[in-house]
From TrEMBL:
Sections of the chain in a coiled coil: none
Family: Belongs to the TDE1 family.
Protein name, per record: Serine incorporator
Gene Ontology, cellular component aspect: membrane
Pfam families: Serinc (PF03348)
InterPro entries referenced in this protein's UniProt entry, alphabetically: TDE1/TMS
Keywords assigned by UniProt, alphabetized: Membrane, Transmembrane, Transmembrane helix
Species of origin: Apatococcus fuscideae
Length: 389
C-alpha cells in the first residue's frame, strides 16, 4: 500500500479518465491558441518565421504551426506510454504503475513534450503534418470498425430477447425514416439546382448504397445476425457523414440554401458539438472491447462472446498499449480537424474540419463504411472455410 501511494497509483478506470482529461485540455488549448493567441504566438521566432516563407500571407500559418505542435507533443506523450506498456496484460506486472501511476511525473513530461515542440523547425513540423494525415486515416477506419461491431451487438441483444422485438421494429423504423428524411433535407439545402452536380452525386450515391445494402440484409446470402436495424443504423451513419461533408464545403451560394447556417451562433454551436464529438470518439474507441472479443458479425463467434472469461484470471482484462495507441491516433486526428486537413492554412474562428480536403475525407469514410458493412454481410457466407472471429 505504501509503495502504491508513493507511485500515486489509481484504478485503471480512473487512469483512463485522467488521460482523457489531459487529451481534453490539449483540445481546448489548441482551439484557444489557434483562434485567440496570434499576438502571443507571433512572438515565437520559429512560428513568426512562417510569415516570410511564402506559406501564408495572412498569418494563418502561425495558428497552424501551434495546432500541429500541440498535436505532435500529444502524439509523443501517448507513443511513450504505448512503448512503456507494450504487451502488458498481467495484473501484477511491474509495469502497471507506468500506466496507472506516476502522475506528477507524467504531467510534467506531458507538458514538457508539448512545450519542446515549439522549438522544432517548421519543416520538421510539416513532415509531422503529413504523418498525422496517415495516422488520422487509421483513426477513421477504427471508428468505422467500432461502429459496425457495436451495431451488430445491439442487433444480437435485441434478437435474443422476445420482449425486445417491438423495440427492434421501432428502432428500425426510426433509423430508416430519419435517414430518408435527412436525405430529403440534404437535397433541398445542398442541391437546389440541377447544376450542383457534385452535391447531387454525393447525396445520391449515399442513397443508392443505403437502399442496396438494406435489400441485401434481408436476402438469404447475408450473415444471420444482420437485418434491417443494422442496415438502418449504417445508412444513418453514412447520411450523417454526407451531411458533414456538405457542411465542410467552401460556400457556393448557388448550391447552398444558407438558411442562417452562416451565422456566428450556428458556427459556435457546431464547433462545440464537433469538439465534443472528437473527445467522445477518442474515448469510446480507446475503451472499446473490440480488440478483446470475437466479431459480432459472425454468429458462432457472437454466441461465444462470454466464453473463456475465466481462462485468464491474471489478465488485466484490458490492453493499456492499445488504449494509448488510440489516443495517439486521436491526437493526430485532432490536428487534421483544426487545420481542415490542410497544411497550407487554417480555418477561421469557430470553424473546424472545413475545406475540400475534409469533404473528400468524409465522403471516403462514408463509402468505406458502406462497403465494409456489405463485406460483413456476405463474407462469412461466401467464405465458409474462413474464420471471421
Amino acid at each position: 500500500m505504501a509503495a502504491r501511494t508513493c507511485l500515486c497509483e489509481v484504478s485503471p478506470v480512473l487512469a483512463k479518465w485522467i488521460y482523457f482529461i489531459l487529451f481534453s485540455v490539449t483540445a481546448l488549448a489548441t482551439w484557444m491558441l489557434r483562434d485567440y493567441s496570434y499576438e502571443a504566438l507571433s512572438k515565437i521566432s520559429v512560428l513568426r518565421s512562417c510569415l516570410g516563407d511564402g506559406v501564408s500571407g495572412d498569418g494563418t500559418c502561425v495558428g497552424k504551426g501551434a495546432v500541429l505542435r500541440i498535436s505532435f507533443g500529444n502524439v509523443m506523450f501517448f507513443a511513450l506510454n504505448l512503448l512503456l506498456t507494450l504487451g502488458m496484460r498481467k495484473k501484477d506486472s511491474w509495469r502497471r504503475p507506468l500506466h496507472t501511476g506516476l502522475w506528477p511525473l507524467k504531467i510534467v513530461v506531458w507538458a514538457a513534450l508539448i512545450g519542446v515542440t515549439f522549438a522544432f523547425p517548421n519543416h520538421a513540423v510539416y513532415i509531422y503534418g503529413q504523418v498525422a494525415r496517415v495516422l488520422s486515416g487509421f483513426f477513421l477506419v477504427l471508428q468505422v470498425l467500432i461502429m459496425i461491431d457495436f451495431i451488430y451487438l445491439i442487433n444480437i441483444w435485441l434478437l435474443e430477447r422476445d420482449h425486445c422485438l417491438p423495440g427492434l421494429v421501432i428502432g428500425t423504423l426510426i433509423t430508416f425514416i430519419g435517414s430518408l428524411g435527412v436525405t430529403g433535407v440534404l437535397y433541398y439545402f445542398y442541391a437546389p439546382s440541377i447544376h450542383c452536380h457534385l452535391n447531387i452525386f454525393f447525396i445520391t450515391i449515399t442513397l443508392i448504397l443505403g437502399i442496396g445494402y438494406s435489400i441485401l440484409s434481408v436476402t438469404p446470402i447475408r450473415v444471420a445476425n444482420a437485418g434491417l436495424l443494422t442496415s438502418g443504423c449504417v445508412f444513418g451513419y453514412c447520411v450523417y457523414l454526407t451531411w458533414s461533408a456538405l457542411t465542410s464545403e467552401t460556400v457556393d451560394r448557388a448550391c447552398v440554401h444558407n438558411g442562417g447556417t452562416g451565422s456566428r451562433g450556428i458556427k459556435i454551436v457546431g464547433f462545440v458539438l464537433a469538439i465534443l464529438s472528437i473527445l467522445a470518439a477518442t474515448f469510446t474507441s480507446a475503451t472499446t472491447t473490440i480488440f478483446e472479443t470475437k466479431s459480432a458479425a459472425d454468429p458462432e463467434a457472437a454466441a461465444t462472446l462470454g466464453e473463456g472469461e475465466d481462462d485468464n484470471k491474471d489478465s488485466t482484462g484490458e490492453r493499456a498499449d492499445l488504449f494509448h495507441f488510440v489516443f495517439l491516433l486521436g491526437s493526430a486526428y485532432m490536428a487534421m480537424l483544426f487545420t481542415g486537413w490542410s497544411l497550407n492554412n487554417t480555418p477561421g474562428q469557430f470553424t473546424i474540419d472545413y475545406g475540400w480536403f475534409s469533404v473528400w475525407v468524409k465522403m471516403a469514410s462514408s463509402w468505406f463504411s458502406a462497403l465494409l458493412y456489405v463485406w460483413t454481410l456476405v463474407a462469412p457466407v461466401i467464405l465458409r472455410n474462413r474464420n471471421f472471429s
